[in-house]
Amino acid sequence: MKTCSTCLLPETHETITFDKNNNCSVCQNFTFKQENINWKKKKLQLDKIIEKFRGKYEYDCIIPFSGGKDSAWTLYYLIKNYHLKPLVISFDHGFFRPNLKENVKKLSRKLGFDMITFTPNWKVVQKLMLQSLLEKGDFCWHCHTGIFSYPMRISVEKKIPLVLWGEPSAEYTSYYDYEDIEHVDETRFNRFVNLGINAEDMYEKLNRNLDIRDLYPYSFPDKKKLLDIGSYSACLGSYIKWDVKKQVKIIEKELGWKGDAVENVPKNYTYEKIECYMQGVRDYIKYLKRGYTRPTHLSAIDLRNKRITKKKALENIKNFEGKKPHSLKIFLDFIGISENEFNKIISNHVVSPHKFKKITKLGLKMKDHQYWSKDGKMEKKVSKNIIRSWNNQNDYEFKKNKNRTVKL
Asked: Of 76, 81, 331, 344, which has the highest C-beta tally within 10 A?
């Protein structure tokens, strides 16, 4: 596969393009960030936005929060530097790890804030996971959409117009660049958050075999309601220079925030994606679909920042990619399918020119693996019905390419 001459990201990376020197669009955006952005001016813009909303509502703002590095930094930065009274909103996707829960407790007691945690219906989540895996080769639709839509729904419900998020997507994709303010609005939500499937689509794809109200947490609020409250929702990283490694050192020192090992990720990146014990499965799927995964992504960031050599980056990739996570068995039980069925589904979503290849080698088991939930297995009958329905809905397409049909 073609890879970036600077950061080694492959051509299967979403949104990526290359210039005549084989530098990728993400690297070009990074260079623009380093050389062209007036961060003092951006910070003054943030000052004005915060003063516009401060003290006028029950809370100054809403901060969506998982307890991971980016949301922890966002919360710390806004409370420490602006002394805001935020309402913190956490969407429980169902897979929080023990250390993550400890981090949330530490931050809560160190910083002091009010917090709402929403946990959606598990039976609905299971169906959404399988359906989105079938549709997009990505089981995280409920997480993608819930994390971004639920805080906005609370914003409307409680009439708190200012919502401040953390890391901008411009750090790692080309959906947006640093020249613009990255507003977390319905346009962004539909552009890449919801995988091209809105809640109404999902309701139809599941043959209306659930209550439409169960999908409200995954749907973005009505635009008129957002206009009525004067909604302003944007990434903090559009106003301050984002530097993950520097920020992690600060929250570790000031808040006692603690990183964690993640399946098939080098040990020097213990700050990355520590929230979810299904992260190993998500990365594994990415490898099967696109031929690379998180070690490439993290090494690319360090290469752009000149923190590692290409030799070290290639070592990260060689030693940690292409291994099956121990969490896969738990995931398959959750959605009620076999590994063979899983492989057939993923093989339908491979991004060219990568070729699907079955993986047998296991990665390392994480120390907290024993605490990862193994209950809540979906009934085989339910999973069969979902896959059968999906096959029927796509019958015409499958007749053109019979090899894509998933058979139970």
From this structure: 331
Confidence of residue 325 (pLDDT cuts 50, 70, 90): very high
Alpha helices in 37-121 (DSSP H): 39-53, 69-82, 98-111
Domain membership of residue 101 as a residue range: 38-238
Residue 299 clears pLDDT 90, i.e. is over it: yes
Omega into 161 within 30° of 0, i.e. cis? Answer: no
Longest dimension (CA), the chain: 61
What 8-state DSSP symbol labels residue 193? I
List, for residues 167-188, the tens digit of each pLDDT value. 999 888 989 988 889 999 999 9
Distance CA 139, CA 180 (A): 30
Q: Check: CB of residue 181 under 8 Å from CB of residue 237.
A: no
pTM of the model: 0.93
pLDDT tens readout for residues 261-273 = 999 999 999 999 9
User: CA-to-CA distance for 369 and 374, rounded, in angstroms?
Assistant: 10
Q: Is residue 26 part of a domain?
A: no
- Give the DSSP H or E segment for 380: helix 380-393
Q: What percent of the chain is modeled with pLDDT above 90?
A: 92
Which tokens go with 355?
A: 């070729």
**Cα gap 133→128, rounded to integer Å:** 8
Give which of 139, 110, 82 is closest to 256, Cα–Cα. 110
Residue with tokens 């009010």: 114
Which own/partner pairs from 301-304 qualify as long-range (CB within 8 Å, at least 24 positions apart)? 301/7, 301/171, 301/172, 301/244, 303/6, 303/7, 303/8, 304/6, 304/7, 304/26, 304/27, 304/30
Total domains in the fold of the chain: 2
pLDDT interval class at 395 (50, 70, 90): low
Q: What is the chain's mean pLDDT, rounded?
A: 94
Residue 353 belongs to some domain of the structure? yes
Beta bridge partners of 91: 118
Whether 329 and 190 map to the same domain: the answer is: no
Confidence at residue 373, expressed as pLDDT on a 0 to 100 scale: 85
Residue-level pLDDT at 407: 38
